[in-house]
Design goal:
The complex is a heterodimer of chains A (about 350) and B (about 475). Chain A has a two-stranded parallel sheet. Chain A has 17 helices and two strands. The two termini of chain A are about 35 Å apart. Chain A has about 350 residues and is mainly alpha-helical. Chain A has one domain: Amino acid/polyamine transporter I (Up-down Bundle). Chain B has three domains: about 110 residues, no CATH class; about 120 residues, no CATH class; about 160 residues, no CATH class. In chain B, the strands form three sheets. A five-stranded antiparallel sheet of chain B has the order 1-2-4-5-3, sandwiched between helices. In chain B, helix 10 packs antiparallel against helix 14, helix 12 runs antiparallel to helix 13 and helix 12 crosses helix 14. Classes of the chains: A mainly alpha (about 350), B alpha+beta (about 475). Chains A and B meet through helix 7, helix 8 and helix 14 of A and helix 15 of B.
Chain lengths: ~350, ~475
């Protein structure tokens, strides 16, 4: 398994975060006041620093061991349940992201061929990246990041002239409950903690600084994005499923209005990086389960599972209500970010004490 | 058992060579008697210069009147006092002697002596240096490599009068024994890379090597873009050696293999460095644009026409729709057919006798294209796209091979999955490029891993020589390389 720098890892995570953020529903994210979303995100990041503590502590104890291998060493065969939990998490997390993408395609772009074919192509490329290694994904994400940032700057610059101060609403007008709900949503959709738990042993360099910069830069990105959506779209944003798309489509700039497919394509590129990351994390967890016996090609069948989940969630309303529920994701994030690393920390401490007594 | 060394009996040696070259009429055996002792010269006709043999070997041998009586002394006397050939050495191992004979050396054996004198008198006909056909430069030198390694080495040495320039002889092909030369600048080339190249060549299982292309498959891993470069120009090779690269000269091939070879080098030509920096930069950007046009234009065109016509401005969309309405075939079939037709014409133009290639081009390019549009078989926009793609491909000739297949792949993907498919394929390409290494150096270096100093020096811009000469950028120092 190869190693990457902290800058590469958090750059990759930045791409994943942008990809998730632009898919968020404005009303869903911020309730009645869009601008509160900025405060929610800041709060989510502040809580995120605390949530990441167990992962950091665990990583500090065993910097070279992925969480799965640590679990097997501490708990033996029972420990295999922990990498299994992460495998399920990565499958479902990426399945939901793919489902959101498919929903967007069907609702707004409406391709004249089955949308699952795009999902299949997307995951096939992601699986190829996961098969080639973490470094390949990280380097690709750097290139995609440049494209994403260029696209974002272009959109921001072009829609900025539609900005109207009157559209902005006072902060926290509806109380703090909305702020907390928004923060919970952002936290629930943060796969970084799980990815850190699995992939940090493959990262070298100044990781804490990287994490802080990631939190800062994503806050800035989300802040500017929500500010522009609120200022440009006003109340109209609440009626939209995908406000970033709405932002470009109502810009009254004909050349931009026509570029739906290109913007979706750029979003898809980010999604490929995110999925590839998830598949690589899956590969690491599977290695912990099988004692490095499984070949890297395992990422391809795993990708097929993700496609199946994505298509299933997108095509069934009941599955959507279950898998896109913030509460479920908050619980899953809590389990993968806090609970499982804490269990391991306690287990390790107990094992050490037992060893000392013997 | 096969004879491993020369025998002391001349007749046995003669019989051995005649037996090994049975039914080969090009073996020359010239027997002489010197002071009552028999001697013989062995050579292969066509590989030697008979005039040199007559003047520097046969004539001095026959002119000398008194030879020492013992065979060993006689051979010493010949080596130091009789023969005037410039290159003389002793050898007694049969496999080496056979290889040397087939490389244009002449062997002199004396009866009673278990050693032979071998002299390089190569005299086979070879092409003189001519302007490279596939690497044309506007301002660079007009001489290119030939099929002879000796001449190629001389062309490099003439440009680099540096004792650190090394030419290490090697051999590949268990049957062909093809001589190759490992060429590098001591102190500049990485020892690690050199060791890797040597190891790869030594373990090459080929029986016969007839050209550089045979070896590239072993020096390169299977991927879309190659990590092995080829150049027909000695000046380009000298520049690359200066940057720590290794060159391989293969006997019989008028081009050198360059290792490691990075992706950005496909866009760099000597002309960039011979023109003023701003123009060099402009030309380089044109090449980047040409690459994207050549790779993505047909795919994007088909994707847009078939799936996303809304991306086009209204007037252009109407024009294309009007043209499409007059043709019987779908745009994908039309573009694919035109593309295959173009490739057939290119291949025919390349293989046809010189006198006919111009006719093929005119008939193919002008008559066929014009008639097809006039007859309403293909639309003019599709023809324009394929023509533009083909021309753009020639702006980066080193990438022609991968591009010709890539554009076909993009075309099919664009037709079935629209712009999303094209973008997914683009990420696939990026992933492949990002994951690939050429002898431990990332193929996409210095773009990814990124090193601003190098990217702004010679990738995005072509800096002036004042700036370029401030420090050397060795290939092994690229970010992400194993030596770094």
């Amino acid at each position: 398994m190869d190693t990457i720098s902290a800058a590469q890892f958090f750059g990759m995570m930045f791409v994943s975060r942008i990809t998730i953020t632009i898919a968020l529903n404005a009303q869903y994210a911020a309730g009645e006041s869009l601008l509160d979303g900025i405060l929610s995100y800041l709060l989510a990041m502040a809580v995120g620093f605390l949530l990441a503590v167990p992962v950091w502590l665990l990583h500090k104890r065993d910097p070279s061991l992925p969480i799965g291998e640590t679990a097997v060493r501490v708990f033996g065969q029972f420990g295999k349940l922990i990498p299994l939990c992460y495998i399920l998490y990565f499958w479902v997390m990426n399945g939901v992201s793919l489902a959101l993408f498919q929903l967007f395609l069907l609702d707004n772009v409406n391709p004249d061929f089955p949308a699952f074919l795009i999902l299949t192509a997307l995951v096939a490329v992601a699986a190829y990246g996961a098969w080639r290694g973490l470094e390949a994904i990280a380097r690709t994400s750097a290139c995609v990041l440049v494209l994403l940032l260029l696209g974002t700057v272009l959109v921001f610059a072009l829609v900025a002239r539609r900005f109207q101060k009157e559209n902005l609403e006072p902060l926290l007008a509806g109380g703090v409950s909305q702020l907390l709900r928004g923060a919970a949503l952002f936290l629930s959709r943060t796969s970084l903690f799980a990815e850190m738990a699995v992939l940090l042993p493959f990262v070298k360099g100044r990781k804490v600084l990287g994490f802080s910069l990631w939190a800062g830069s994503t806050s800035l990105f989300v802040g500017v994005l929500i500010f522009l959506i609120a200022g440009c779209l006003g109340q109209y944003a609440y009626t939209q499923n995908f406000p970033v798309y709405a932002l470009t489509s109502i810009s009254e700039i004909s050349s931009m209005q026509r570029l739906d497919a290109v913007f979706t394509g750029v979003w898809m590129m980010g999604l490929i990086v995110q999925t590839a990351c998830g598949l690589y994390a899956f590969r690491v967890c599977v290695s912990s389960l099988t004692g490095n016996k499984l070949a890297p090609w395992i990422v391809f069948p795993s990708g097929a599972v993700m496609v199946g989940l994505g298509v299933g969630i997108a095509s069934d309303y009941k599955m959507q209500t279950v898998f896109m529920d913030t509460r479920l994701w908050l619980i899953l994030t809590g389990i993968t970010a806090v609970l499982l690393p804490l269990v391991l920390l306690v287990g390790k401490a107990a094992a050490r004490r037992k060893g000392e007594r013997v | 058992m096969a004879q491993e060394t020369l025998s002391v009996h001349l007749e046995e040696n003669k019989a051995f060579f005649q037996n090994r070259f049975q039914n080969a009429m090009d073996l020359i055996v010239r027997e002489v008697e010197l002071s009552g002792r028999k001697a013989a010269l062995f050579a292969i006709d066509g590989l030697i210069n008979k005039e040199t043999i007559a003047l520097c070997i046969v004539e001095p041998l026959l002119r000398e009147e008194a030879y020492p009586s013992d065979p060993k002394g006689m051979l010493d006397h010949m080596e130091h006092q009789v023969l005037s050939a410039a290159e003389l050495k002793r050898e007694n191992r049969m496999p080496q002697l056979l290889t040397l004979l087939m490389s244009g050396f002449v062997l002199l054996c004396v009866d009673g002596c278990g050693e032979g004198l071998i002299s390089g008198v190569q005299g086979f006909a070879y092409r003189g240096p001519q302007e490279p056909q596939n690497e044309v430069m506007q301002r660079g030198a007009k001489d290119g490599f030939t099929e002879s390694n000796q001449l190629n080495m001389a062309m490099i040495r003439r440009r680099m009068k540096n004792p650190a320039l090394k030419f290490q002889p090697m051999e590949v092909g268990s049957q062909s024994h093809t001589p190759i030369v490992l060429c590098y600048l001591e102190g500049a080339a990485s020892e690690k890379i050199l060791a890797q190249v040597r190891q790869t060549l030594e373990s090459c299982p080929l029986k016969t090597v007839l050209g550089a292309g045979y070896l590239t498959a072993f020096l390169d891993r299977g991927r879309v873009f190659s990590g092995v470069g080829l150049s027909e120009r000695p000046d380009v090779v000298c520049g690359k050696l200066e940057e720590g690269r290794v060159a391989l000269l293969v006997e019989g091939t008028p081009s050198a293999i360059l290792l490691p070879f990075l992706f950005v080098e496909n866009f760099q030509t000597l002309d960039d460095y011979l023109t003023r920096p701003f123009y060099g930069t402009f030309i380089r950007w044109l090449k980047y644009l040409a690459f994207f046009l050549s790779a993505f234009l047909p795919g994007a065109y088909v994707a847009v026409i078939v799936h996303h016509p809304e991306l086009l401005p209204e007037s252009l969309l109407l024009e294309i729709a009007r043209s499409q309405a007059q043709t019987p075939f779908p745009v994908m079939f039309e573009t694919l057919t035109l593309y295959f037709l173009y490739e057939v014409l290119r291949e025919a133009g390349l293989r046809a006798p010189r006198s006919l290639s111009a006719t093929v081009s005119i008939v193919g390019g002008l008559v066929l294209g014009d008639t097809a549009v006039a007859a309403g078989l293909v639309s003019a926009p599709s023809l324009l796209v394929v023509a533009l793609t083909a021309i753009a491909g020639y702006a980066v000739p080193r990438l022609y091979e991968p591009l010709s297949l890539l554009r076909l792949a993009f075309l099919l993907i664009g037709n079935f999955l629209g712009i999303w498919g094209v973008m997914a394929a683009l990420v696939f390409l990026l992933m492949d490029l990002c994951a690939s290494h050429s002898f431990g150096v990332p193929l996409l270096s210095p773009v990814s891993p990124f090193r601003g100093r190098l990217v702004f020096r010679d990738v995005l811009f072509r800096a002036s020589w004042k700036r370029l000469s401030r420090w050397d950028a060795k290939v092994q120092d690229m970010p992400g390389s194993q030596d770094h």
